[in-house]
Amino acid sequence: MTAQENEGLDRRSFMIASVATVGAAGLMTATANAQTSSGGDSGSAVAKQGTVYTGDVIDGKRVIASLDIADLEPGKTHSLYFKGVQMPTGQTWYVSVMVAKGAAPGKRLGLMSGVHGDEMSPVHAIQTVMKQLDPAAMSGTVMAVFDISRPALEGMARRWPSSSRGIDLIDINRLFPGNEQAPEAALRHAGLVFNRLLRPNLDYGIDFHTAATGMDMTAFHLARMDLPDVRAMAELYPIEQIFDNKAEPGLLANALIDAGIPAFTPEIGRPRIFDHEMIDLFVEGTMNVIKHHGILPGPMGRTGKDSNIFIADGMFPVITTHGGFVELLVQLNEAVEAGQKVAIQRNTFGEVVAEYRAARSGKVGARRTDATAEPGTPIVFFLFDSASAIGGDVVVE
Ligand SMILES: [Zn+2]
Q1: Which of 25, 40, 93, 292 is deepest in the core (most CB within 10 A)?
Q2: Which stretch of DSSP H or E encloses residue 106?
Q3: Ligand 1 centre and the CA of 114: distance in Å?
Q4: Is residue 39 part of a domain?
Q5: Nearest CA to 395 among 315, 316, 314?
Q6: How remote is the CA of residue 211 from the centroid of ligand 1, in Å?
Q7: pLDDT value, residue 388
Q8: Which of residues 251, 286, 310 is at a domain's end?
Q9: Structure pTM?
């Protein structure tokens, strides 16, 4: 979610922007036609070229410049490297791709991670799902793409280091569907991945994330619950919270939706680590989605009904007014009443410089883990459901 330093600024502005839009009737009307109006075929010239093997093999894995999973042998799992954009030295950023192609035809589901490079639990969650799949028993395909922003992963960083004007740090989850001819490498890379790997091969997509460095979150989805196909998948996870929000254009999930591919964005807890307890919940939910689409037979595991998911359409942050050391008084997923004190901030002498209270009642969706904060830093995010909450703006004191 949001972070200290510059890392989280884009995400932070999305979250703050969401405060202004959530609960507004316009949110629903703006998103209602997204699935039906897109058609998904604009710019499809590259989509029809089938699988292109470059002839290179890296560590035993064939390199592709584009993929049509119809070309792959059924009943097997295929491990490939997708050729992304080049580096400043002329070497190439390769993206790791696994395709579990069922013996029989069926729905095609994509599992993505590494759009942000400091988010590790998604990689492990997808690896775990892929290990559980037996393509010989499958009707349909599951495609995993593990490391979409390779240079960001190499640096355990949220953003792509672009060298075009000195180093800029670029959040590629604001760039999709990308542009292969753009005057910017990260934007080109997003276009290559989207046009030649994802869009031609998916009926449904799940783009896994975590909180950003400096924050922690509940087991959480960002999902457009006004879209029935998205809602059906999102509710199959035995997690704590869903934030029903369109978020910004440029998110991979939104670009997929605009291309006619229902998609959403799970957030698996804190960044930089494997949170195994939380990973298990998202593996269970993803296996449910795979069964829901008839790709594998078998009984459903636990779902959102079992975990009593809190579905919220509003979010508000508590934002620091001072710099200093922050002591948080609330835990993840804790229910908080309007006016409740949620944090105390002290200077280096230990003197209290600010106290922060919740502007309205809600549940804690995310909280800061870094102990210091500059003025203007969101330190807690609360989720609320506008149908049950009373109005009020963000209050800091
Ligand atoms: Zn992320």
Answers
A1: 93
A2: strand 104-112
A3: 8
A4: no
A5: 316
A6: 6
A7: 61
A8: 310
A9: 0.86
For residues 99 and 244, membership in a common domain is answered with: yes
Handedness of CA 5, 10, 12, 16 (dihedral sign): positive
Give 47 Cα–ligand 1 centroid separation in angstroms.
27
Q: Cis peptide before 299, with omega less than 30 degrees from 0?
A: no
Considering the domain architecture, whether residues 293 and 353 belong to the same structural domain is answered as no
What's the average model confidence in pLDDT over 311-332? Answer: 97
Ligand 1 centre and the CA of 266: distance in Å?
Answer: 9
Ligand 1 center–CA 134 separation, angstroms: 29
* Stretch (H or E) spanning 154: helix 150-154
Domain boundary among 310, 329, 352: 310
Please report how the helices 276-292 and 121-131 are oriented relative to each other, as an axis angle in degrees rounded to 10. 50
My answer on whether 120 and 28 are in the same domain is no
> 119: CA distance to ligand 1 center in Å?
6
Mean pLDDT in residue range 316-324 = 96
Q: Provide the β-strand partners of residue 372.
A: 325
- Judge whether 37 lies within some domain: no
Cβ(47)–Cβ(195) below 8 Å: yes
Q: What is the pLDDT of residue 52?
A: 98
Q: Cα of 171 to ligand 1 centre, how many Å?
A: 9
Range of the domain at 159: 49-310
**3-state SS class at 219:** strand
Taking only the tens place, the pLDDT of each residue in 160-219 is 999 988 889 999 999 999 999 999 999 999 999 999 999 999 999 999 999 999 999 999
pLDDT at 38: 35
Q: What is the DSSP letter of 164?
A: B
pLDDT band for position 62 (50/70/90)?
A: very high
CATH code of the domain containing 103: 3.40.630.10
Count CB-CB contacts under 10 A for residue 327: 12
Cα 302 to ligand 1 centre (Å): 25
Sheet architecture: strand order including 219-223: 52-58, 61-66, 76-86, 92-101, 139-145, 104-112, 204-207, 263-268, 219-223, 241-244, 310-312
Residues 283 and 332 in one domain: no
Name the residue among 223, 316, 337 with its Cα closest to residue 22: 316
Confidence band, pLDDT 50/70/90 cuts, at residue 109: very high
